[in-house]
Design brief:
The complex is a heterotrimer of chains A (303), B (361) and C (381). Chain A is built from 13 helices and 2 strands. Chain A has 303 residues and is mostly helical. The longest helix of chain A is centred in the N-terminal third of the chain and has 28 residues. Chain A is globular, with a radius of gyration of 19 Å. Classes of the chains: A mainly alpha (303), B mainly alpha (361), C alpha/beta (381). Chains in contact: A-B, A-C, B-C. At the A-C interface, helix 1, helix 9, helix 11 and helix 12 of A face strand 7, helix 7 and helix 8 of C.
Chain lengths: 303, 361, 381
């Protein structure tokens, strides 16, 4: 295994912890709701998944719990933003603070525990492909879930009535409402599903990849997931690319050093944010037109 | 309030809004007070579930933040960066802009003040040093805020998003400086800048723990209040925030106003970072802001972006954050529990925003 | 506009309610916490991380609880997750309000705040854990630490003796002096038993970021290392990564053998109990000022008071290697002995310690080069 392969393999593993929350955020934002609480929902997912995995010995039971915990976290955000029509950013931050507090308080007892992370499964046939097989098809189940979700979400968004409804909700909510569409139900579903995925992303971190829990272990990756969605212009395939690029940058920092190459960690850390900023500016003429209209309104007080 | 109707407004039928407005005030008051009490009870149950007497917890919180001179001083000191960063949210909010970048603006303010402090050393008289540090911080914060403002007015990039991203960039810049060029040569290689010269640190007030920063912050807050409520600029901001198109038709320089509001906001937070550095910290370290910027965003939201209330909310949050110490020591609770209380308190206005779409002022 | 008025009224109401709660609570609970009875002493411990981190902070917490058990007239109060900024000042203030007479500020980054606090509170003894500070201290202040690199070099011996690939990995957070000394000592220990051993470095720029630690461990394992050590605040992730790969681990801060009994070789573990109890006793006997702890105190093997001890051995360390390590520990207890005894050269071949010379503690803590056999570079400074 050479360094490039190592960086790519690590990038896929770590990138999946960003990909899942980013896909979730994509669904919510497509329906017109931004969730800055993704960071908190990731924490909720990471802790509950880890706790259940430790107590039951079943990592997959943990992942399922992570999904539920994330969804519950999303339910709060949905209730506040959809029914109370609360400021989306403030609500997201509140969700984050609540989750941060709850997971720190109740997670203390799990800090010293360790479990075996989800084992890699070589995909029969595909894992034998030279080079690519090693990089893409020898990972844990959640990585494959990520692949499948990118395809599934792209299909649902662009090829189904449900997808049309979600996009319409994000673009022209008044039209959806006027034609008697289930506006709130769609938004609720999108936010809860999205936060559930953030929870699974947290589970990938704690149960899927490292096998530990630590207070605030997401270290801002939930915010990165939000940035990835913007970078990707709300397109599932580009979300995949953005999340993996970030994951690879993270892994490359370690791999380069292990090969005796000095890296400027701070520049490397800042790079994804700078790239996203530049992408936002460059894409604006074309790109902001891609932003769901309701989302733009949510992010613009003066409407 | 707005020209183009938002989805939320369409859903809020006009009749309903009028109905709510005509309801007797006391109902609404009861609702608000009830909600707060409800959440205090929720928090109490949470605490009781951990085997601790909730009443004693509330007693500890009050005692450890308000009832002793030291505690009160610490609450005020911690409120300085939070209040200024919260005003940094409130000013652009007047013009309809969302500044989520308080954290980054606090950081660049502290960084610039550190840079100025290292440059000056102890060479200049105290008052000159204080002024230069404060100006450096405010200038850096203004630059950081104006950057997002310019991306908005020049390229249409959403400021809520760009300010959020710039927070992370600011943090990485700070880490780079602390770990490399500015590292304290006497600090065993630990991540901290060289300490600020004693003469350049803000002086204490008459035997108390308070420092000059508290007075400066109070005066600046008063200035912001005057600026927003009594000046033509403040009025123009409100016009822009109320209706951009109407403001444009009225001949207001909308883009300059938007940019200016971000610049002023950034300067306020940058000043907060500088005062916190020069008054309390004296050394730049990685955790110098510890989410103050995000707490400030919630404080401004809780205070409905009205300067007086924003400062009150900042004081409240400062006290809550501070009470974590007392809770750990006196009641054996996990100090992080205060994050929950902070969240619960902001839940109240979030739940009660029903009748005001957008959540703006 | 109506909303604004209602809200203002609401705010006034809630303020009134809060004041009432304040008054009731303030009166009701005032007597409940002044628990310090006559003759007893309250001692406070401030920690930077979680008290159950299986690492640095848990070592502090465990020792503080032992103190509480050992010393019946001492009341111990603790505060964890206190960041290295003015928050520590506030935490110490809260402790004084609780009646604390001695405060242990147990993170290196607390130094300047702790010193300032001591100057402002002449009646309180403040001691700082982290050491290596020059200058005269006020009569109520001191700093203490241990010769960390001594046991680390013993861990290096275990790593060098067990490795089959001759490649060792070391994950660290930041290139601080103490970490550089530890990395060098680890490599020096390893090559003592295995001249072919090399130590590969990866830094994470974070004292505890499990994701980055996992990436670092994976990169090292991919490089072919089969023993991994680290200098981070939390160590469970690195241990877990080694365990999953069937490789070995040398711990730091805390004896975490239970996490991986087969892969755990040994490590360094803090045992602060003796230092804490000595300091508290010296304060109780009014002998602190002018005593050994009213200074820059460093525990060493030579004085048999090094708070950093060799952790327990795991099952994979062969008996003869254990004997060799124990013998070396004995040798290091001789006055003047040090792992930093020449000839030692840096990576680029320049002489770090000439043959026959031995570095002092202060010299070791100002090393800016990696010794020969370490693969990797330090971020420039």
């Amino acid at each position: 295994m050479n360094g490039i392969e190592q960086a790519l393999i690590g990038g896929v593993d770590g990138g999946t912890a960003l990909l899942l929350p980013a896909l979730g955020e994509l669904i919510g934002q497509r329906a017109g709701i931004v969730n800055l609480g993704a960071e908190g929902c990731m924490l909720a997912g990471a802790l509950s998944a880890f706790a259940v995995a430790v107590e039951t010995g079943s990592p997959w039971a943990g992942v399922a719990t992570g999904l539920i915990a994330g969804a519950v976290c999303g339910l709060l955000h949905a209730a506040l933003t959809i029914w109370c029509r609360a400021d989306q950013l403030a609500s997201g931050l509140v969700v984050w603070f609540l989750a941060l507090g709850v997971t720190s308080v109740y997670g203390t007892g799990y800090i010293s525990a360790a479990i075996s992370p989800l084992p890699p499964i070589a995909v029969p046939g595909l894992a034998g492909i030279p080079w690519l097989g090693l990089i893409l098809f020898n990972h844990n189940g959640l990585v494959y879930l990520g692949y499948a979700l990118v395809a599934a979400i792209a299909f649902v968004l662009y090829r189904t009535r449900l997808g049309l409804l979600i996009r319409a909700t994000g673009e022209r909510p008044e039209v959806v409402a006027a034609t008697g569409g289930p506006l709130r139900l769609v938004q609720l579903g999108a936010v809860v599903t999205g936060a559930g995925l953030a929870g699974v992303g947290g589970a990938q971190l704690s149960v899927g990849y490292v096998g530990n829990w630590f207070n605030d272990m997401t270290n801002g990756y939930g915010f990165v997931a939000v940035a990835v969605v913007l970078f990707a212009g709300w397109r599932p395939a580009r979300v995949l690319a953005g999340a993996y690029l970030f994951g690879i940058a993270l892994a490359a920092a370690s791999v380069l050093q292990a090969h005796g190459v000095a890296v400027n960690q701070y520049l490397l850390d800042a790079l994804p944010y700078l790239v996203t900023l530049v992408a936002l500016v460059l894409l604006t003429g074309r790109g902001s037109a891609q932003a769901p209209e309701a989302l733009r309104r949510a992010l613009t007080r003066s409407g | 309030m707005t020209l183009s109707p938002t989805s939320a407004e369409i859903r809020a039928a006009p009749g309903r809004r009028r109905y709510l407005a005509h309801r007797a005030d006391w109902r609404r008051v009861g609702l608000v007070a009830g909600a707060y009490l409800g959440f205090l009870v929720v928090f109490g149950i949470l605490v009781a579930a951990r085997g601790i007497d909730p009443l004693s917890v509330y007693a500890t919180m009050v005692r450890s933040t308000l009832l002793s001179e030291h505690a009160l001083a610490q609450t005020l000191l911690r409120a300085v960066p939070i209040a200024l960063a919260a005003l940094a949210v409130a000013v652009p909010a007047r013009a309809g802009l969302i500044n989520v970048g308080g954290e980054g603006q606090l950081i660049v303010g502290a960084v610039a003040a550190t840079g100025a402090g290292l440059l000056i050393g102890g060479r200049l008289p105290g008052p000159v040093s204080w002024l230069l540090l404060a100006l450096a911080g405010a200038g850096a914060g203004a630059t950081w805020g104006a950057l997002a403002g310019a991306l908005r007015t020049g390229f249409g990039a959403n400021e809520a998003v760009t300010t959020l991203l710039l927070n992370f960039v600011a943090n990485d810049i700070m880490l780079y400086l602390i770990y490399q060029p500015w590292k304290d040569p006497n600090g065993s290689g630990q991540p901290q800048s060289r300490p600020l010269a004693d003469g350049a640190a803000l002086p204490k007030l008459l035997g108390s723990q308070l420092n000059l920063g508290v007075i400066v912050a109070a005066l600046v807050a008063l200035g912001v209040w005057l600026l927003l409520t009594r000046s033509g600029w403040g009025f123009a901001l409100r016009v822009v925030g109320g209706n951009v198109e109407a403001a444009r038709r009225a001949g207001l320089p909308v883009n300059w106003l938007l940019l200016g509001s971000m610049l002023v906001g950034g300067a306020l937070a940058g000043l907060g970072g500088a005062l916190n550095f020069a008054g309390l910290e004296g050394q730049l370290r990685p955790g110098i802001t510890v989410t103050f910027g995000y707490i400030a965003f919630l404080a401004s939201f809780l205070g409905r972006h009205q300067p007086g209330r924003v400062v009150a909310a900042a004081l409240l949050f400062s006290a809550i954050a501070l009470s974590g110490n007392g809770l750990q020591l006196a009641d054996g609770l996990d100090g992080n529990i205060v994050d929950i209380l902070l969240g619960l308190i902001v839940l109240v206005p979030l739940i009660l925003t029903r009748a005001r779409p957008g959540g703006g002022p | 506009m109506e909303n604004r008025r209602t809200l203002r009224t609401a705010l006034r109401w809630s303020l009134a309610a809060l004041t009432m709660i304040a008054v009731i609570a303030g009166c009701g609970g005032a007597s409940s916490t002044s628990g310090s009875s006559a003759g007893s002493m309250t001692v406070g411990f401030v920690m930077v991380g979680s008290r159950s981190d299986s690492g640095y902070n848990q070592a502090v917490y465990d020792a503080s609880q032992t103190v509480a058990k050992d010393m019946s007239n001492v009341r111990v109060i603790t505060s964890d997750n206190v960041p290295e900024n003015n928050s520590v000042n506030q935490a110490m203030q809260s402790m004084v309000d609780q009646g604390a007479k001695v405060i242990f500020a147990t993170s290196y980054g607390y130094f300047s705040q702790a010193l300032k606090f001591a100057q402002e509170h002449p009646d309180i003894v403040v001691v700082h854990q982290g050491g290596f500070q020059k200058g005269a201290f006020p009569p109520n202040f001191g700093t203490y630490w241990g010769e960390a690199y001594e046991p680390v070099s013993l861990g290096g011996m275990a790593a060098g003796g067990v490795t089959k690939t001759n490649k060792l990995g070391f994950v660290y957070a930041f290139p601080i002096s103490q970490t550089i000394a530890n990395i060098d000592a680890f490599q020096l220990g390893a090559q003592k038993v295995n001249p072919a051993a090399q130590t590969y470095l990866v830094n994470t720029s974070n004292w505890c970021d499990p994701l980055k630690q996992k990436e670092a461990a994976s990169a090292l394992l991919g490089q072919g290392i089969d023993v991994i050590s680290q200098h981070q605040d939390c160590q469970a992730t690195v241990i877990q990564a080694a365990k999953a790969a069937g490789k070995y681990v040398v711990g730091y801060h805390y004896d975490a053998r239970a996490l991986d009994p087969a892969g755990w070789l040994t490590g360094s573990a803090w045992d602060w109990r003796g230092v804490y109890e000595n300091i508290i006793t010296s304060v109780a006997d009014k002998k602190f000022t002018g005593g050994p702890y009213n200074a820059n105190w460093v525990g060493t093997f030579a004085h048999n008071d090094n708070p950093l001890t060799l952790a327990s051995f795991g099952s994979s360390v062969p008996a003869d290697l254990k004997a060799e390590i124990t013998a070396e520990q004995g040798a290091l207890k001789q006055p003047g002995a040090s792992v930093f005894t020449g000839p030692i050269s840096c990576q680029d071949g320049t002489v770090l310690v000439a043959a026959g010379q031995t570095m002092s503690y202060d010299q070791v803590n100002s090393i800016r080069c990696l010794v020969k056999g370490v693969v990797g570079t330090l971020p420039k400074s």
